[in-house]
Design goal:
This protein has about 240 residues and is an alpha/beta fold. It is built from seven helices and eleven strands. It is globular and about 55 Å long.
Amino acid sequence: MNIGLLIAGGVGARMHQNIPKQFLTVEERPVIVYTLEAFQRHPDIDVIAVVCVEGWEHVLEAYANQFNITKLKHIIPGGKNGQDSIRNGVYELEKHYSADDIVLIHDAIRPMVSEDIISDCIVKTRQHGCAIAVIPCAEAMVITDDSETSNEIFPRDNLKRTQTPQGFSIGKICDLHRRALEAGITNSVASVTLMVEMGEKVYFSAGSEKNIKLTTVEDIDIFKALLHVKRSDWYK
């Protein structure tokens, strides 16, 4: 069993909008619908669950009906931060599925996730117990102590930029969250950072520069451009 767990618990303050960014409409579809459709289309995804920001659960249900997202089986309340929301999600899944089943934790605001990215995350998670979508670091990296100057570089070959999905067996990720709470870790920014903070090794799966996270207004412009390119490819 492979489950896509979309994290849509944020309010998107950096977008300066009155609605959560995952529910913004772009080219006649809400952002979250693009993400849902990517997991709906994937032949190896059996179930979709969404951790949803409070007050938007019925909107999500309506979109699922409108856009025929038949794999959506669970809508789970969000938490006070990302770690809390993910924990809510995986604890709920633990009630319904086997410890060996795979969960792919994915940002709802990464709507351009491809079939290849999802597939590789599933394969690598099956092989290693976890898999983090990553891409190379192409830019020159510098170290700074004052945020204004630098006289030291960091080798970019030693760096990866993490994305989602981030895959785990349900048993592994639930155990990780329990141990993190016992250790007093309550606000790790992502599953990959929580793994590292808890002394666990992470394994990589394929990401993509196109697998962008919609955080700012500028990201929406990039998303629109990628959508236009994708649609042009369809009609060639």
